Amino acid sequence: FTDKLITINTEDFELAKRKFKVNEVYYVPGVGIDLSRFEEISIDKSAKRNEIGVPENAKLLLSVGELNENKNHQVIIRALAKLNNVKVHYAIAGIGSKKEYLLNLAKELGVEEQVHLLGFRTDVPELNSISDVFCLPSHREGLGISSIEAMSCGLPIITSNVHGINDYSQNGVTGYKCAPTDVNGFAKSICVLTENSELAEKMGKYNKTYAKKYEMSLIIQMMREIYELQ
């Protein structure tokens, strides 16, 4: 009974065209992000890192999202333990039912001093700006807005190779991607990007430009055309 079906990733778009008996199917790249919030952030990096307990000279991995099974933060903690490098830290902004599990896992693996659960935050742009690599290891995502926000800040990304994330996560271009359960793959990816700053910077520069296709104003224009509001 639907006149127009709107999808936000290419996998769902192709599926809907093949399987759904609907009049028209559209692809729109996401729900729109106000990228101006994530560009040209002016901040005292040392002070901000000190606020969240991360050393100034550490390499900082960041994830943003609920502490739940799907977000799969545990795989990054396991990868961190494999690195055996105390200068690599991992911060997670978010709340959820897996908090105690993640804290206990970090302690069990001997990386509790390197893992920082930051809780609910309203300063994600600033957290992106003091980080070196963004991680999105989810089992499933419609798109994964938090990683696109990080890309707009010029961060390389390490992601899982699933569903909507595959729309923008390009191996060796935007960063690296692995199967959600591939601890060794995540560890290797983290190692490469934290030890090769020139490569990380090159990927981050590409990401900053690429993220512009998800800008709010572009999405609004596409939606206006779909709804025939022109």
Task: Describe the model.
This protein is of the alpha/beta class and 230 residues long. Helix content is 39%, strand content 16%. The protein has helices spanning 10-19, 45-52, 74-83, 99-108, 124-129, 145-152, 183-195, 197-210, 216-226; strands spanning 4-7, 24-27, 59-64, 88-93, 115-119, 133-136, 157-160, 175-178. The strands form 2 sheets. Strands 5-4-3-6-7-8 form a 6-stranded parallel β-sheet, with helices on both faces. The protein is globular. The relative contact order is 0.17.
List keywords for this structure.
alpha/beta, 6-stranded parallel sheet, two-stranded parallel sheet, about 40% helix
Q: What is shown here, in short?
A:
This protein has 9 helices and 8 strands. With 230 residues, it is an alpha/beta fold.
Query: Order of strands across the biggest sheet?
Result: 5-4-3-6-7-8
State the secondary-structure class.
alpha/beta
Q: For the residues shown, what is the average pLDDT?
A: 95
Runs with pLDDT <50, length 5+? none
Radius of gyration: 18 Å
How are helices and strands ordered from N to C? Answer: EHEHEHEHEHEHEEHHH
The coarse silhouette is globular
Helix content: 25-40%
- Give the biggest sheet: 6 strands, parallel
Please report which band the strand proportion falls in: under 5%, 5-15%, 15-25%, 25-35%, 35-45% or over 45%.
15-25%
Tally of DSSP helical segments: 9
Secondary structure tally: strands: 8
Write the layout of secondary structure elements.
Layout: E1 4-7, H1 10-19, E2 24-27, H2 45-52, E3 59-64, H3 74-83, E4 88-93, H4 99-108, E5 115-119, H5 124-129, E6 133-136, H6 145-152, E7 157-160, E8 175-178, H7 183-195, H8 197-210, H9 216-226
Helix pairs in contact: 3-7
